[in-house]
């Protein structure tokens, strides 16, 4: 056993010696397929990504891989001016918006993007990715996340063992349209309230629709 461990350590040292321990920042920026996400990860590590999104980098990759094919097929295609941002970068910025909330100006400053460009990019991306995320992480769990499954797997709530899921709520910013008061009133109602239900296995069980 000791010989195996020594061989592994020698192999690691040999591999480290083959590569420079100095990061070529310029080369990394040029070759990165998602410079915004990679830049934040490079500068602040996994902690910076987690602080901005409440997701670890590996969890973001899992989410991204579930919608990547759909995004590449339906986002930033067709006629008209195309976005200069990488698809994964926009997905990352969307997660930051959902976590941080606040005004568009505040979140746009994090990425050093002009606010009108940021709003157009994020809202357009939401229209493409929302339904796919719902199918992958909500609809697909309907047959899996049952009360029987939670009981047999030991994932029930301690204080409420008969509860299937708990619901949290957040109020996201909405754009008030210009026009008459009748057109603006729906944006002062609860229709922009967003509710998410989750069980102890962290699978989404139910979400509200967001018509606005």
Main beta-sheet annotation:
3 strands, antiparallel
Number of helices: 9
- N-to-C CA distance: 62 Å
Stretches where pLDDT falls below 50 for ≥5 residues? 204-208
Q: Number of DSSP strands?
A: 3
Radius of gyration (Å): 22 Å
Question: Secondary-structure element sequence?
Answer: HHHHHHHHEHEE
Main sheet strand line-up: 1-2-3
Strand content: 5-15%
Structural class: mainly alpha
Number of domains: 2
Task: Write down the overall mean pLDDT.
Answer: 77
Shape: globular
Helix content: 40-55%
List keywords for this structure.
mainly alpha, 3-stranded antiparallel beta sheet, 212 residues, single chain, 2 domains, 8% strand, DDE Tnp4 domain-containing protein, globular
Give an overview of the whole structure:
Helices cover 55% and strands 8% of the residues. By secondary structure, it is mainly alpha-helical. The protein has 2 domains: 56-137; 144-212, no CATH class. A 3-stranded antiparallel sheet has the order 1-2-3, with no helix packed on it. Strand 2 and strand 3 (204-207) form a beta hairpin. Helix 4 packs across helix 7 (115-137). The longest helix is centred in the middle third of the chain and has 23 residues, at 115-137. It is globular and about 60 Å long. The chain starts with a helix and ends in a 5-residue tail after the last strand. This is DDE Tnp4 domain-containing protein.
Compact summary:
With 212 residues, the chain is mainly alpha-helical.
């Amino acid at each position: 056993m000791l010989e195996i461990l020594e061989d592994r350590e020698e192999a690691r040292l040999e591999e480290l010696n083959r590569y420079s321990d100095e990061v070529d920042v310029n080369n990394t920026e040029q070759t990165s397929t998602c410079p915004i996400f990679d830049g934040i990860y490079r500068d602040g590590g996994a902690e910076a990504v987690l602080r901005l999104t409440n997701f670890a980098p590996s969890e973001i990759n899992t989410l991204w891989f579930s919608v990547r094919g759909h995004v590449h097929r339906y986002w930033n295609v067709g006629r008209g001016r195309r976005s200069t941002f990488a698809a994964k970068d926009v997905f990352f910025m969307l997660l930051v918006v959902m976590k941080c909330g606040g005004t568009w100006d505040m979140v746009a400053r994090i990425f050093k993007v002009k606010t009108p460009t940021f709003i157009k990019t994020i809202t357009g991306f939401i229209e493409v990715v929302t339904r796919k995320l719902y199918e992958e992480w909500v609809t697909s769990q309907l047959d899996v996340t049952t009360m029987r499954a939670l009981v047999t797997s030991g994932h029930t709530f301690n204080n409420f063992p008969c509860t299937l899921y708990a619901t949290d709520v957040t109020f996201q910013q909405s754009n008030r349209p210009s026009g008459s008061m009748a057109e603006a009133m729906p944006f002062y109602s609860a229709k922009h309230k967003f509710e998410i239900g989750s069980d102890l296995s962290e699978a989404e069980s139910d979400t509200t629709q967001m018509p606005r």
